[in-house]
Amino acid sequence: MRGVLACLLVARIAGADTPKPVRHASTPRPRATDSDDAKARAALAVIDGTARVDEPRKPDPLARKPDPGARTDRTRADEDRSDARAIVRGLKPWRATILDREYSASSRGSLDGARGSLDSASRGGLDDAEQLAPGDGYHIRRPTRAYGAPCVVEYLQGAVAEVRALYPDVPTLAIGDLSAEHGGALAGHVSHRGGRDVDVGFYFHHAARDFEDAGKDLDLEATWALLAAFARTADRDDGVQIIFLDYAVQKRLYTFAKARGTPDDELAFLFQYPAGKGAQTGLVRHWPNHANHFHVRFKR
Hints:
Blueprint: H1 2-5, H2 34-48, H3 73-90, H4 101-104, H5 116-122, E1 130-131, E2 138-140, E3 147-148, H6 150-166, E4 173-175, E5 197-200, H7 220-231, E6 240-244, H8 247-259, H9 264-270, E7 284-285, E8 294-298
Parallel strand pairs: 2-4, 6-7
Antiparallel strand pairs: 1-3, 5-8, 6-8
Helix pairs in contact: 2-3, 6-7, 7-8
């Protein structure tokens, strides 16, 4: 694995987006079912809560008609539900590649072979937590939610340090939630319970103290370096297990990396793109609501 990832950081070369694949009208679309919707809502809840996947409300006949060109919260919710439903159809068995033993074993009431903070994570707790300390080059959005397993804190700080060593003038990076001090339920999330998850923003050509969508000011070079730093831990027992990232942002990073000479086998290992949002391939997978940050899940 280290050999496969050895070339992830090479010389700077900018890349351009490739055109979107065309869907032929003759291709039948799978029909959505109530079961699909329920699973889609549950799937979204695994990562970042259910606030944007509630059932649609009945229209208010007295409400002003929205601008047809405007992007509303309901439009985003419908897109999220559609994305999640597509992912759900590709999971065999359901959620197997999204959920790890913490969740899949909870219905059995035990975790075979788990120990320490991992075992307590399934019960909603976290042993031996370490708080991410303030440091150069990053801003901790909520320090009371910045507790994680020691290896997670170490890998996170190491990834930031790698990027800053390559690009000393890179602006501040926003760090989101890890876990609460003793683990357990964390408002706004269904994951982030056991110190193995961390939300990490992107690099921009300006300092970002909060998560921002990957717009024109996205620093592709530094953000690629950050992703590569996380990816290089994937062959370790406690390294990265999976990274959730919006498919469109994957495309931009993939295109950038390919243009700078990253080998195809490394790109195939790292990215789900261009196989499709529901494809069960790649370290980096699409998940709705992740167009402004990485969700990095570490192994146990």
